[in-house]
Amino acid sequence: MDEVNQTLFIPLYGKALVSKQKILLHDPMAEKIWEKEQFPIRGKSASKWLAYNMAMRARVFDHWTEKMLKNAPDALVLHIGCGLDSRCKRVKQPYTNWIDCDFPDVLKVRKQYYSETENYHMKEVNAADPQQVKALPDAKEAIVILEGISMYLKKEEIITFFQTLQSKYAKLHILMDVYTEFAAKASKYKNPINDVGVTKVYGIDDIHDVLTGKIRFKAEHSFTPAKLVDRLKPAEKVVFKMLFTGKMYRKIYRLYELEM
Questions:
Q1: How far is 189 from 175, CA to CA, in rounded Å?
Q2: Is residue 54 within 8 Å of 11, Cβ to Cβ?
Q3: For the chain, how big is the Rg over CA atoms in Å?
Q4: CB neighbours (10 Å) of residue 229?
């Protein structure tokens, strides 16, 4: 894997750590994969605070996906840049067609742990390649999960990606996390992804800059909702709030829900 793809081991480690400790997230698949892969995690990537943050982010995306599936059980679920994540197993709401998408070298590892079924498939997709996006299955409605991917795409690539989705699906539900432009610049010097050699990422200050056609902004969500933060020990809660909540955190990292 190249450096960008190796960033998938950072959230994998975080989810495995908290799952093993039986807090915030139940993810036995992350535990299993991490135990087998043992990718060297060091520096800020090994921080328990980042692990808590990764687990909470995963819970927020899981909850949103379950909510979307409850309202649209026949929708196509597209997890773009799935890495080794086990959302397809963590989400309890039934689905008719779920596709986990990533680069070939990522899927080569993923297929060692996941098997395709009638309702679950894996597909090689580069979000920056319109032809690969066009090759995704047709459907009337799609639920699109973009977790930890937008910062590796230029604004123009995100716009083209959204335009391509609109040409395929009549209804879209999208949840996407983004770095701000400040965070993207700062990431060259201070970001856990530096630990695997990544220094170039992209940011978005105004989500409307990448919206196109009929896709519209619906809501901004918190990565660290109070009900999850409250599950930490009192002393840990104080430190975590300083690091990952409030206005300062929003200056670097945001979570947007979009729809069409």
A1: 27
A2: yes
A3: 17
A4: 18
CA distance 59 to 232: 14
Task: Give the closest residue to 15 by CA, choosing from 66, 59, 61.
Answer: 59
pLDDT band at 9 (very low <50, low <70, confident <90, very high): confident
Owning domain of residue 18: 3-259
Residue 5 pLDDT > 80: no
Q: 138: which DSSP letter? A: P
Report the domain count for the chain: 1
Residue 46 to residue 194: CA distance in whole angstroms: 12
Query: Phi/psi of residue 78, each to 5°?
Result: -120, 110
Instruction: Say if CB 80 and CB 101 are below 8 A apart.
Output: yes
Q: Six-digit token pair at 184? A: 């993207």
Q: Is the pTM of this model over 0.85?
A: yes
Identity of residue 256 = Y
Instruction: List Cβ neighbours of 159 (8 Å cut-off, separation of 6 or more).
Output: 210, 212
| Distance separating alpha carbons of residues 200 and 194, to the nearest angstrom | 9
Q: pLDDT band at residue 192, thresholds of 50, 70 and 90?
A: low
Angstrom distance (rounded) from CA 132 to CA 201:
22
- Element (DSSP H or E) covering residue 256: strand 253-259
CA distances from 206 to 66, 181, 184, 209, 223 (A): 27, 10, 14, 6, 18
Element containing residue 166 per DSSP (H, E): helix 155-168
